[in-house]
Amino acid sequence: MCPTPVSTKLPHRPSGGSSSIAGFSSSEKPLETCEAIFPKMVSDDHEGIQKYKVFVSTWNVGGVVPEDDLVLEEWLDTENTYDIYVLGFQETVPLSARNVLGPERRRPSSRWNSLIRSALNRSSSYDPKEFSSKVGERQKVHPVKDGSPREFAAARDFRCVASKQMVGIFVSVWVRGDLRRHIRYPGVSCVGCGIMGFLGNKGSVSVRFQLHGTSFCFVCCHLASGGKAGDEVHRNSDAVEIFSRTSFAQGPSIDLPRNILDHDRVILLGDLNYRISLSDARTRSLVEIKEWSTLLESDQLRVEVSRGGVFDGWTEGNINFSPTYKYHPNSDEYYGCDQGRKGEKRRVPAWCDRILWRGDGLKQIRYDRCECRLSDHRPVRAIFIAEVEVSEDLNSLESFFL
């Protein structure tokens, strides 16, 4: 995306309709949105189901530009095998007036994409201990223990199929190299919900594409902040705006879904900013003893989902991890725990960073957080098994050439 002058940013509502795709290197052209990329060689009358592993993660990086030696392998769990990575970031730039109103700062997102590319495509000779020893604690992504690690694949080949930034919200989607030719009709749509109701300091960046015969939509959000009673109403309002204003361009000769909820597989991720409606003291005491079920009874997002409001029909996995906000950077200490820090605002711990999904054909097999101390948030990640409709005739045709 080219830098946009202030004069064109203010009157223009960044709602749906954008179909541009960014983030390809000079040697990787964006995918064409026409049948030329994937000719209809076979009939769609005979459909089969194929399952793919999708890695989804959201991370508010607090305006920190990553160093060149930041290690991402443990966060991205590269010791295991996935087919698709969907990585959503918030606050890739500080949310200052200059960054919100001025030209887009693409250097941080380009840096993140470069680090992601290196991590996903690193050879099997990668040694986590060797790389971890080269960086400080602040830049280290700590592992999440989930059993014995697998061996690395001998060769890794992931390609970026979509990459889009709106102020500090940034989405980067990567797929296995052999899947890239089956990705059709990629598109993006940005919705600003921030200052004056439409600037991009808050809002969403959504990415859609079709894999074989199944449409996917990933919605990366940064909703209204605030820990006061009633602030959740603003977050609900942001979500309503995102669902109503997100719109994708139509395909040249196929009836593609235009709205978020029209897609076959939909995943929402981001810093949703929902808080826990309990007192500071009560919340901290329950966090201390890891009484997650009691805390979640007062979690604003869980309450909203259960009452059938703006998130009616959405599902979230079981939360068995500590609240992800708000930490002192480079620390495991929540804000407000140290009474000796003068002038420090007391921020009640909360699960601000969440991943939800909607519809059939998605099964979540993992939902956890990663212990990276880069910012005041901890990244959250989820693993899904996604069912995809694939032509049986096409399977037979591809097998013939193997």
UniProtKB/TrEMBL annotation:
Residues 127-146 have a biased composition (Basic and acidic residues). Keywords: Hydrolase. InterPro entries: Endo/exonu/phosph_ase_sf, IP5P_plant, IPPc. Residues 15-27 have a biased composition (Low complexity). GO terms for biological process: phosphatidylinositol dephosphorylation. Residues 50-392 form the Inositol polyphosphate-related phosphatase domain. It comes from the Eukaryota. GO terms for molecular function: inositol-polyphosphate 5-phosphatase activity; phosphatidylinositol-3,4,5-trisphosphate 5-phosphatase activity; phosphatidylinositol-4,5-bisphosphate 5-phosphatase activity. Residues 1-27, 124-146 are annotated as: Disordered. The keyword Hydrolase applies. Belongs to the inositol polyphosphate 5-phosphatase family. This is Type I inositol 1,4,5-trisphosphate 5-phosphatase CVP2. It comes from Anthurium amnicola. The lineage of its organism: Eukaryota, Viridiplantae, Streptophyta, Embryophyta, Tracheophyta.
